[in-house]
Amino acid sequence: MPATALEIDLRSDTMTRPTPEMRRAMADAEVGDDVFEEDPSVRALEERTAEMLGREAALYTPSAHMANQIAAYLAGRSGDEIWAHELSHILGNEQGGTSVLSRLLPRTFSGPDSTPPREWLERLIKGTDDVHRAQPALICLENTFTGRVMPLEGQARVSAFAHQHGLKAHLDGSRLWNAATALGVSLAEAAAGPDTVTVCFSKGLGAPVGAALLSDRDTIRRARRARKLLGGGMRQAGIIAAGALYALDHHVERLADDHARAERLAASLSAAPGLSAEALTNMVIAKTEPGEAPKLAELAGAHGVGCIAIAPDTVRMVVHLDVGESDITEAAARITKAAEALAA
Ligand SMILES: Cc1ncc(COP(=O)(O)O)c(C=O)c1O
Hints:
Layout: E1 8-9, H1 20-27, H2 40-53, E2 57-61, H3 64-75, E3 81-85, H4 89-92, H5 97-100, E4 105-109, H6 118-125, E5 136-142, H7 152-164, E6 168-173, H8 176-183, H9 187-191, E7 196-200, E8 211-215, H10 217-229, H11 238-250, H12 255-269, E9 276-280, E10 283-287, H13 293-302, E11 305-306, E12 308-311, E13 314-318, H14 325-343
Parallel strand pairs: 1-11, 3-4, 3-5, 5-6, 6-7
Antiparallel strand pairs: 2-8, 7-8, 9-10, 10-13, 12-13
The structure holds pyridoxal-5'-phosphate (PLP).
Pyridoxal-5'-phosphate binds next to helix 3.
Family: Belongs to the threonine aldolase family.
Cofactor: pyridoxal 5'-phosphate
Protein name: GntG family PLP-dependent aldolase
């Protein structure tokens, strides 16, 4: 579906366009060569992000994907194990990068969120001194996880378990801003525990490019080298960093509006024939009759509303900066029409 045909684009919160004020901040950004660590805007963004997340240091990366891959690369040696949810982004949606780039062996679990169950952890940690066994190196968490908030007790428990057994823990917090908003805690509280944390500026916050990896100073020094190895050293990146900095100042508090709008959309869609919908932070997860989700997404697209079938019976809609109150009313009406056409 070409984006131009979509009047209301709920496919992802990556679809936002920079606001005029953000574009002005970007145009006015002071810049330098960031590979030489001489870009004042990038430096300001890294310092500000580290301060907000309560970490010693941050590294600006072109994408959350790259930040996750750098975390995996630093945590394990070739042949070591990486533990993560079977549907985690780091394992399932980054082209197998942890296997290709870092040659880690994935061990997966399933469940409602990205926190590995206690019994699974206890089972996996047994026998790691056996000569046949690969060595576990990293446990990955994700918050939010397809919009679902992971309870912080789980994050603390898994991080403590990792450290007790000499493993590292990584948090893919691409939407940690949404999790902190939903939990009513500070970003530093939401980030506490894991050794490394990814956050993303180009999802809910509406910046055009970039993410950050957070950790202690020495890990971030090594991460800077790994980013260069991957070809991710950027030059006058202050222009895009300024968009992210603007987003940190102006677009974090408003995330509660996205969550409220997602609630309203879910409530309206639950009244549509054959649909039941649930709001999870800024995402609406709608269940259809078995096998109907791709047809519903296609019909919604024909009505100018973009959404994605993420399973044969599940459609995902994501509320973001470019979706206002009237868009929610309009999207609910058009998707309801599509559901009625399917049910007829
Ligand atoms: C949870 C999560 N982590 C990481 C990423 C990677 O983000 P990007 O493709 O912008 O690098 C995404 C992308 O949607 C995501 O949803």
